[in-house]
Amino acid sequence: LVERTDRYSREQSGALAARRIHVAFPLLPVSHREVVVETIGSEPFVAALPAGHKLLDQERLSLADLRHEQFALVSRSVGSNFYELVIQACGQAGFIPHVALDAGHVMTELGFVAAGLGVSVVPGPLRSREVEGVVFRDLHRAPSVEVGVAYRRDTKSKDIIAVLAVGRDAP
Q: Is the pTM of the predicted complex or chain greater than 0.85?
């Protein structure tokens, strides 16, 4: 039985260690003594803007274009890896983002954006989630986040090993 669930990277490694899940695809870095993590790719960040935002006349933005905006981000306590990556990327673009809203889940974060309460920067694959009121824009020289496949160090299941092989071969 394969069941897909959404969990943050820290939750994934804890669930692996506790044997509640068998394979995870976390944002990196992740470390846990019971868990092996292999990098399988990277995903660029994209900007998430509310419909009607003044920057939507541009097809591609730079992160610096967002310097005067209020940000909605997943809370550092929930998604610390991603939060730190966004803060670091903004710093490299020359500014410290004004994080006005902390969300407990990325869909809440996008809900804040849809309500016009702020903008956000999220991993590119989230653009496949059609959220009414949110428009995604590519970022010029977009920072990216590494994605990995993670599993328990003592995994011996042939089914799990087969899933790992597919994860390693994913584009």
A: no
